[in-house]
Amino acid sequence: MPAIVLIGAQWGDEGKGKVTDLLGERVDYVVRYSGGNNAGHTVITPDGQKYALHLMPSGALSPSAMIIIGNGVVVDPKVLLEEIDGLAERGVDVSRLRISGDAHLIMPHHRALDRVVERYLGSSRIGTTGRGIGPAYGDKVARMGIRLQDLLDPGILRKKLELALREKNQLLFKVYNRKAIDVDETVEEYLRYAERLRPYIAETRVMLWDALDRGDTVLLEGAQATMLDMDHGTYPFVTSSNPTAGGACVGAGIPPTAITKVIAVSKAYTTRVGSGPFPTELFDDNGQHLRKVGHEYGTTTGRERRTGWFDAVVARYACRLNGVTDLVITKLDVLTGMPKVPICVGYEINGKRFDDMPMTQTEFHHATPVYEELDGWWEDITKARTEDELPENARRYIARIEELCGTKVSIVGVGPGREENVIRHPLLP
């Protein structure tokens, strides 16, 4: 089974890093194919060490897998080098990292514009992390981007930067009353990054093609999630890339025919960071309980996550859109002790019932969830490792999710640790 895609089925933060880490020892390559350091994966190792990863694929903690940052990622070199150094200090072998020369760079003007435009939008802001991801992707599409390979040619780097800043400095200085970016300082800074990143820059497409030809297992790891996809998410409250399964082919440079399995990760409830519609969002004690018990604070930003009940309409949409073969449900233990555990099975919009995602942004914004209530459970499930060890009501909850999504639930997370899972169906033979 050559290529496996791992995606989020909600608005991100579902626990994809844990699943990558779980599979890491059994795959040969782990590839990050979209997003930037606006994403974050938290991985807890068996000895209790916690790693917060932002640009590095979660497979970095695997003892042997090659780790690749694909062409679809936007890279802030300062952040990446800090992450490399932090992992090396903790004894993690980072020599296995390779970065596509076609990955685009986040530049100082991207970060500056991201922050000032969000402030300018006020109450209409998207809720970005302010790390320059959107402007970097915007320049990529506008064919004004600067790529990793440009770090290897100082002349091209300077020429491209001068061209970009001819426009960006006008915006920063004349429109937003901010300090212009200095070309010389920026070139000098980025050439320092080039010295350290040079050994990691490679033609990663050929590496992956050769690996697939050998029959190696390649795990493609998306950042963010389905409902934040630029084309298929809750636009405009989305990320600036395609974290869905189809984006894996574009962002890593592999053919669609190589993908044999798509694993989607979803929490046993729903969370979202930033602005945008969220039909099942809770503003009562239940929402506070989910946030507190589930430690729902962003890995990258530290922001409080918005919380709500499980939305089967969103999950089914994600399963169908991505061609999901296996669903992983995380954080089931967070629901322990709740008398009732509602599941959103549809929406009511202007008196009409919707069982699938409505077409328009307006309809989704006004969607009222239709709930089906299941009985909760009080037993501690963190020690469960087989389905039989779960309380009956917990099993019913998972079975109902499986039925509503039309996809088999293969793994159920019952705690944050790597081993705290119930395996219903093995993800790998």
Biggest beta sheet summary = 10 strands, mixed
Residues in helices, as a percent range: 25-40%
How many helix segments?
A: 12
- What gap, in angstroms, lies between the N and C termini? 9 Å
Q: What is the molecular shape?
A: globular
Structural class from helices and strands?
alpha/beta
**Uncertain ranges:** none
Give me the Rg, rounded.
22 Å
If you average the pLDDT, what whole number results?
Answer: 92
> How are the strands ordered across the major sheet?
9-7-5-2-10-1-11-15-19-20
What portion of residues belong to β-strands? 15-25%
Number of strands: 20
Binding site for IMP: 13-16, 38-41, 129, 143, 224, 239, 303
Main location: cytoplasm
GO molecular function, one term: adenylosuccinate synthase activity
InterPro entries: Adenylosuccin_syn_GTP-bd, Adenylosuccin_syn_Lys_AS, Adenylosuccinate_synth_dom1, Adenylosuccinate_synth_dom2, Adenylosuccinate_synth_dom3, Adenylosuccinate_synthetase, P-loop_NTPase
Written overview of the protein:
A ten-stranded mixed beta sheet has the order 9-7-5-2-10-1-11-15-19-20, sandwiched between helices. Strands 14, 16, 17 and 18 form a four-stranded mixed beta sheet that branches. Helix 3 crosses helix 4, helix 3 (about 110-120) runs parallel beside helix 5 and helix 5 (about 155-175) crosses helix 6 (about 185-195). With about 425 residues, the chain is α/β, with parallel strands linked by helices. About 35% of the residues lie in helices and about 20% in strands. Strand 16 (about 340-350) and strand 17 form a beta hairpin.
